[in-house]
């Protein structure tokens, strides 16, 4: 899949567009340089799209347009920013109303273990060794893999999830923040298989993560990313009214380059999920309300689908790299 930007070089006309008044764009998390970029705005978020690599990074103002109106005006809750969710987005991802249940039936995680097992079989990978599940959510997949794996470790950043997965599902769970922790300080390697399902959309430095991961995976070990969210207009619009959203939408070329630089060899490409339209049928008027953003000019092509690329990498020999930590 190609990068869905109007142009892929820093001299493209749109890359010279003006930034929002008084707002400086953040450094591109993929290029790590002050390359030209342009903002694409949706209701609650601003996405900065890099002219060099096509990746997009999110900024979220503390107030949405409706927050400037008096509080007594009856408006849908989605039109105002939830301060608690704004400070801790994990409160949006994992709620107590059925998400955290020992039985995943009826939750978004129903069927997830079977789906992961089918993917591993399609890739020809075994899960009977040491398995690391990065950002694995409530732990249903980790608990299922623990039935055949020699050892399974789950990492999560959410304070709601760590005690649930550990105490309710009996999974060895560690608190891990992409931005704050070094992976080898949190988990004891080595791991023959590492899984990440949409967790790296919240990592602001995939290059550093790829290097950190190489410290706990031996040469020949595998990483399955299933998947990450590509930078399309639909990917930005789907969270227009949500307080939580991915931190970064990685272009496929930038994502692959980050792991290649850390000594990971690309083994396979796949679609983690089929392309999906951004609007949600259960929300009446959602697409109608989003049409101005969908049709507005901007750096992203008018692709209103969400694309979910997947990758399988093999840990290759990297000059100067230390052997996996642990034993």
What would you note in describing this structure?
The protein is α/β, with parallel strands linked by helices. Helices cover 22% and strands 20% of the residues. The protein has a single domain (52-59, 83-315), classed as Rossmann fold (3-Layer(aba) Sandwich). The chain starts with 36 loop residues before the first strand and ends in a 12-residue tail after the last strand.
The CATH class is Alpha Beta
What is the CATH homologous superfamily assignment?
Answer: Vaccinia Virus protein VP39
Q: Which consecutive residue ranges, at least 5 long each, have pLDDT under 50? A: 1-22
Shape: globular
User: Quick one: how many beta strands?
Assistant: 11
Q: What is the beta-strand fraction? A: 15-25%
Keywords:
single chain; 327 residues; disordered N terminus; Rossmann fold; 10 helices; alpha/beta
Write the layout of secondary structure elements.
Blueprint (H helix, E strand, L loop, with lengths): L36 E5 L4 E5 L5 E4 L23 H5 L2 H4 L18 H12 L6 E5 L5 H6 L5 E6 L4 H8 L3 E4 L7 H4 L6 E4 L9 H9 L7 E5 L6 H5 L10 E2 L2 H10 L2 E14 L8 H10 L9 E11 L12
Parallel strand pairs: 4-5, 4-7, 5-6, 7-8
Antiparallel strand pairs: 1-2, 2-3, 3-9, 8-11, 10-11
Helix pairs in contact: 7-9
